[in-house]
UniProtKB/TrEMBL annotation:
UniProt-listed InterPro entries: Znf_C2H2_sf, Znf_C2H2_type
Keywords, in A-Z order: DNA-binding, Metal-binding, Nucleus, Repeat, Transcription, Transcription regulation, Zinc, Zinc-finger
Entry protein name: C2H2-type domain-containing protein
Source taxon at top rank: Eukaryota
Family label: Belongs to the krueppel C2H2-type zinc-finger protein family.
UniProt-recorded Gene Ontology molecular function terms: DNA binding; zinc ion binding
Residues covered by the C2H2-type domain: 14-41, 42-69, 70-97, 98-125, 135-162
Length: 188
């Protein structure tokens, strides 16, 4: 429990208890944990869309403000985010960095390639919103789309203080650090 919140000497002492990925900073690990739990604690007050990282919410908020400071040199189209302009510019260059390993067809976006690949498997892509939350916690009733997210959540009901130092984060819930292993873990 005596680990600092960040580490500048190159070490990555904060580890994800689900996938093992390590981080230099505690807040980076905590933010990463939302990718496993499915929680998106940062919500847009204009449209209700939620995000697991605060910077993603800030980027999204500019869409409501109508600000579009980035313009395409070729066609003049304007964008609120530089990354959207860069993605758009690939349309003009014809560069297709993502190639299907099955048929060789190229795509400018990884997401488009992933959608395309369903034609080879015979499956239809399922949107996150269409996936039911079928895994429910017997103790509190909270539901999840994935069994692993329920399993991670259930730790909040069985956590003991033992060798762990616990703290509560409004965005992540109960989190803690195992002092013996010098690894940070999330207990929600």
């Amino acid at each position: 429990s005596n680990l600092p919140d960040s580490n500048d000497n190159g070490e990555k002492p904060f580890a994800c208890s689900v996938c093992g990925r390590t981080f230099r900073q505690r807040h980076s690990m905590q933010s990463h944990m939302c990718t496993h739990s499915g929680e998106r604690p940062f919500q847009c007050s204009d449209c209700g869309k939620s995000f697991y990282k605060q910077w993603r919410l800030k980027m999204h908020a500019s869409t409501h403000a109508g600000e579009k400071p980035h313009s395409c040199d070729v066609c003049g189209r304007r964008f609120n985010l530089l990354q959207n302009l860069r993605r758009h510019a690939l349309m003009h260059t014809g560069e297709k960095r993502f190639t299907c390993s099955e048929c060789g067809k190229g795509f400018t976006r990884a997401a488009t390639l992933r959608t395309h690949q369903f034609i080879h498997t015979g499956q239809k892509p399922v949107k996150r919103e269409q996936t039911p939350k079928t895994f429910t916690c017997d103790l509190c009733g909270k539901s999840f789309r994935k069994a692993v997210n329920l399993k991670v959540h259930q730790r909040v009901h069985t956590a003991t203080h033992g060798p762990e130092f616990l703290f509560y984060s409004s965005s992540l819930g109960w989190a803690g650090m195992q002092s013996g292993r010098r690894r940070s873990i999330l207990l929600t």
